[in-house]
Design brief:
Layout (H helix, E strand, L loop, with lengths): L1 E7 L3 E8 L4 E5 L5 H10 L2 E6 L5 H4 L2 H7 L4 E5 L11 E3 L4 E4 L2 E7 L8 E5 L8 E6 L2 E2 L2 E2 L7 H12 L5 E5 L4 H11 L4 H15 L7 E2 H7 L8 H6 L5 H14 L1
Parallel strand pairs: 3-4, 4-5, 5-6, 10-13
Antiparallel strand pairs: 1-2, 2-3, 7-8, 8-9, 9-10, 11-12, 13-14
The structure holds zinc ion and fe (iii) ion.
Length: 257
């Protein structure tokens, strides 16, 4: 399975999954249809699936037009998003399994950003291969999604599920927010060598016009404060020993940043 990024809108990514042996493709969170059709054209690939993570317009805007272009394609999304995802065919819940080409995937319920947000995880097919996580607006590189419909406790539980995956997992998040997230992180943890190093690396990428996505879960565990609610250093910076409160205060500060 090949994965490529299609940058759209101001800072969104659509991810195109391609199984060359079968000539089949799938997309994760198509904000728009045209760029997807343009990417499929040279591959000569048939679009067989849309994987939606949640109902926000910048993740589903291309659903209808893509289904018109490929009437047999199957649109997957969370069961809790019933009625909010245009053309939804499959209603997924925690632990559900699905298949794209030769790759099985599993579904995580990750409420917090929205109440019905889900993530798609493709485990590695060999020990030296990475797993692939499509997590929408739940986990970002250096950050996490805003809490529009969920509570801090829900988001911590959701991020906890993702944090439990192997370090050697590629994180395909839906927005290029990394530099801003790390700038914020350095206002909270200016002494962190890991965050400083990551910020320098990210600046170099961005100045060269390159994407910072995918990131690795192992990198995020070291450099993403939003995965460190149970770390005494973050808790001290947030003036609390309660993990949920530490996360909640951090999220609140980021909302003001
Ligand atoms: Zn969103
Ligand atoms: Fe979004």
């Amino acid at each position: 399975m090949d994965i490529c990024r299609i940058p759209v809108l101001s800072d969104n990514y659509i991810f195109l999954l391609y199984d060359s042996a079968r000539g089949q493709a799938a997309v994760v969170d198509p904000a728009e249809a045209e760029p997807v059709l343009a990417a499929l054209e040279p591959l000569g690939a048939r679009l067989v699936a849309i994987f939606n993570t949640h109902h926000h317009h910048d993740h589903i805007g291309g659903n209808r037009a893509l289904k018109q272009a490929f009437p047999d394609l199957c649109i997957y999304g969370g069961a809790g998003d019933r009625g909010r995802l245009p053309g939804q065919d499959v209603f997924l819940q925690e632990g559900d399994r699905l298949q794209f080409g030769d790759r099985p995937a599993q579904v995580f319920d990750v409420p917090g950003h929205t109440r019905a947000h889900i993530a798609y995880y493709f485990p590695p097919i060999a020990p030296d291969q990475p797993g692939e996580l499509f997590c929408g607006d739940t986990l970002f590189s250096g950050g996490c999604g805003r809490l529009f419909e969920g509570t801090p406790a829900q988001m911590v539980a959701s991020l906890g599920k993702l944090r439990d995956l192997p370090d050697h997992t590629r994180i395909w998040c839906a927005h290029e927010y990394t530099a801003n997230n790390l700038q914020f992180a350095l206002t909270i943890a200016p002494q962190s060598a890991a965050i400083q190093g990551r910020y320098q690396e990210v600046k170099t990428y961005r100045q060269a016009g390159q994407s910072t996505i995918p990131t690795w879960l192992g990198v995020e565990k070291q450099t993403n404060l939003f995965l460190q609610w149970d770390d005494p250093t973050l808790q001290a910076a947030m003036n609390t020993t309660d993990p949920i409160q530490a996360f909640s205060r951090l999220r609140g500060k980021k909302d003001q940043f």
